Amino acid sequence: MATRKAPPKAGQAKPAAEPRRKPPASRKPVTKPRAGSAPAASEPAPVLSEVRERIDGIDRQIQALIAERAGWARQVGKAKGPLKAAVDYYRPEREAQVLRQVLDRNDGPLSDEVLLRLFREIMSACLAQQEPLKVGYLGPEGTFSQQALHKHFGHSAKGLPLGSIEEVFQEVEAGNADFGVVPVENSGQGTIQSTLDMFLTSPLKICGEVELAVHQYLMSRTGRLEDIERVYSHPMSLAQARAWLRQHLPKAEKIAASSNAEAARRARTADDAAAIAGENAGHVYGLKVVAGPIEDRPDNTTRFLVLGRELFSASGHDRTSLLVYVRDQPGALYGVLSPFARHGVSMNRIESRPSHAGRWQYAFFIDVSGHVQDPGVARALAELGEYAADVKVLGSYPVALG
C-alpha cells in the first residue's frame, strides 16, 4: 500500500510532483455516460460491482488528498510564524483566488455552485484545525444572515447569533467576534438603512460580500392556511411577499419582527399565527410549510457584507466601498464623481444618507469596481479633495462568488 508523504517542515522546498500514474493495463477505466442518455447498444452495460469498486478507490484518493491539503495548510501557519489567533491566518483575497480557480477548472458534471460549496467547506475545515473563526451574525439561529455566514465561511466557523445589526458591529469592534455578517441590500426592496448608518461612526472595514438567493416560505404550527389570523416577519420580508399576502391572506394582521427567525420563534406558540421566513428557520422552530416560495420576484437576492477590523490586499477582482462627505457648493457631487470616469473606474452604486454632522447635511455611500491599490482607483481618490470634505474607505474586498 502506498504511503502518503508528510508535508515538509517550514523552510524546506516543496518536493517535485510525481508524474501521474496510468491505470494498470488490465483494469479499464470506467467511462462516464452522458447525462440522460442510455449506454450505446454496442457497449455492454458496466458491472455494478466494478463501478462501486472504482468509486471506493476514488474516495480513498480524495480522502488522502484532503488530509494532505490539511497538512500543507498547517505548514502555511508555521511559515507565517507565531500569530495570536485564527483571524490572523484568514486571508479573504487568497480564498477568493482559490475559488475562482475552481470555477475556471470546472468542466462538469457538477455545477459551479456545488463545487464552490465543497471547496469552501474544505478550506473552512483546514483553517479551523487550530481554532475556528468566530463570526457574529443577526440572529437568532435560522436567519438568512446565518445562511450567508455558512456560504462565505463554511460550517467550521463558529457562529455567534446576536440580537441586532448594531450588536454585530459592537462585538466585532470589541474583538469578541473575528468577523461579522450583516445584510445591506435586497434586489427588490433596496438598502437596509440601519446597516449603512452604522458605518457613519464605526471604524470597521468591509472585507467581503455575499449574495444569497432568498426564498420566502409561509409556515405555521398547523400547516393550514385557513387557521392563520396574523403573520410575523421582518419588514423587508413582508414587503417581498406583499402581493402574495394581499391575494391569499388579505385580512390577516401583519406584524413586524426583528428577524425572520424571531418571527418563526413567535409563530410556534399559537395555532392562528404564521411566519414568513426561510425553510431553515422552519426546521429550527418546528413549523410546517403552508406555502412557498411566496416572494413576489423569482430573482429575489439579498447582499450581505462581511465586517472586519482591517483592509486586505487585492484579489484581482474587487470592489471598493467609500463614504464621501460632499462640500456644500455648486457642482460638488459632479466634482466627486467625475474623477472616477476620467480614470476608467466603474461606479456600481451611490446612495445618500443624513450625515448626522448637522441638519440637512448628507454623506454619500459609493461602490466602485477595483481595489484601492489599483492605479486607477488610487488616482481617482487622490483627486476628490477639492469637492469632498472627507473620504473614508469602508473597504476593498473580493466581488461575491456564486
Structural summary, described in words:
- With 402 residues, the protein is α/β, with parallel strands linked by helices.
- It has three domains: 82-214 and 300-312, Periplasmic binding protein-like II (D-Maltodextrin-Binding Protein, domain 2, 3-Layer(aba) Sandwich), CATH 3.40.190.10; 217-298, D-Maltodextrin-Binding Protein, domain 2 (3-Layer(aba) Sandwich), CATH 3.40.190.10; 313-398, Alpha-Beta Plaits.
- Helices cover 34% and strands 23% of the residues.
- It is built from twelve helices and 15 strands.
- Strands 1, 2, 3, 4, 5 and 11 form a six-stranded mixed sheet that branches.
- Helix 4 links the parallel strand 1 (134-138) and strand 2.
- The longest helix has 33 residues, at 48-80.
- The radius of gyration is 25 Å and the shape is globular.
Question: Which structural traits does this protein have?
Answer:
D-Maltodextrin-Binding Protein, domain 2; cytoplasm; 12 helices; six-stranded mixed β-sheet; single chain; disordered N terminus; alpha/beta; 402 residues; five-stranded mixed β-sheet
Class by alpha and beta content: alpha/beta
Radius of gyration: 25 Å
Question: How many distinct folded domains?
Answer: 3
Question: Which range best describes the helical content: under 10%, 10-25%, 25-40%, 40-55%, 55-70% or over 70%?
Answer: 25-40%
